[in-house]
Amino acid sequence: MPEQGHEHGLDASVSPDAGRPYVVASAVVDGDIGEKAVATATEEAPEVRAPEGMLLVKGGTFRMGADAGGEGDERPAHDVTVASFWLDQTEVTQSAYEECVAAKTCAPADPAILASYGGLFRGPQKPVVGISWHSARDYCLWRGKRLPREAEFERAVRGDDGRKFPWGNDPPTKERTVFSASAPEDVGTHPAGRGPYGHDDLAGNVWEWIDDDYDPFAYTRPTASLGKPGSCDEIIAAQNKLRAEGKQGFTGTNPIPTECEKSIRGGAYNYPAHGLRSTNRIHHPARFKLRMTGVRCAKDA
């Protein structure tokens, strides 16, 4: 089964203001203008609690993509606006995913992949791998969530300062994340590598399935500022154009797709440091089950 990565390297709570402001109203009293203080009935707005295991990614406009480095599909850098959303703090664990399997909603992870290299990929707190995009989507829906969009994922990584990696611009280290390794590690075990909103493992450990179709021309379309790819027909036309122009490599080391594939983000244990950059984009068919690809869910705020 093909599983080569995209050599874009190698292969809360949120509480509203406590209440309304003190209101002073003018009133006519015995023919005179006087001020009457209107009682400050400070109505407490209902508290917005973070869904369990999720952290808020603040909405706003950020710089997505790059003007130099990486591959052609990462360019150009452009402004994208996203709404606030919740994102799982960690990648989905095998233990959490097994609950969905037991509920007969999710297909089991590929047992051969979990048994790889003497079982290095198996563990209750290791990220689930060996699942298709369809299974990743089913899991998130079962939890009352959804898959994140590509622009949302990059927003969670880069924050407001356009950082190259979740933790900043310094290169990856073994203290910050899992890379150039043989297998993933337990989720959330590298707190030094947390992103600007507190999420773990946004770069390294395993790639993560994204809701969007992969569009090599997404950053130059009229919908680029919204972070939206083209339609499947437009994507197929773009891929045919790249092939006709001999631009193998524009979408990474994998062959230019011949179908509408799904975006995958975040880097993985088997990638070198450069492949973990925040703008790196890879893609695979939704049906693929890969030993270096898992999932993390999102939810509208």
Describe the overall structure.
The chain has one domain (23-300): paralog of FGE (formylglycine-generating enzyme). The protein has six helices and eleven strands. The chain has helices at residues 94-102, 111-114, 116-119, 133-142, 150-158, 232-244, and strands at residues 23-29, 32-38, 54-57, 60-64, 78-82, 85-88, 207-213, 262-265, 282-284, 293-294, 298-300. It has a four-stranded mixed beta sheet with strand order 9-8-7-10. A hairpin with a 2-residue loop joins β1 and β2. The chain starts with 22 loop residues before the first strand and ends with a strand. Mean pLDDT is 88; it is low at 1-42.
Indicate the topology.
Layout: E1 23-29, E2 32-38, E3 54-57, E4 60-64, E5 78-82, E6 85-88, H1 94-102, H2 111-114, H3 116-119, H4 133-142, H5 150-158, E7 207-213, H6 232-244, E8 262-265, E9 282-284, E10 293-294, E11 298-300
Parallel strand pairs: 7-10
Antiparallel strand pairs: 1-2, 3-6, 4-5, 6-11, 7-8, 8-9
Q: Report the principal-axis shape.
A: globular
Beta-strand content estimate: 15-25%
Q: Sheet with the most strands?
A: 4 strands, mixed
CATH fold description: paralog of FGE (formylglycine-generating enzyme)
CATH evolutionary superfamily: paralog of FGE (formylglycine-generating enzyme)
Strand order of the largest sheet: 9-8-7-10
Order of helices and strands: EEEEEEHHHHHEHEEEE
State the name of the first-level CATH class.
Answer: Alpha Beta
Number of strands: 11
Q: Mean of residue pLDDT?
A: 88
Percent of residues in helices: 10-25%
Total count of domains: 1
Helices, by number, come to 6
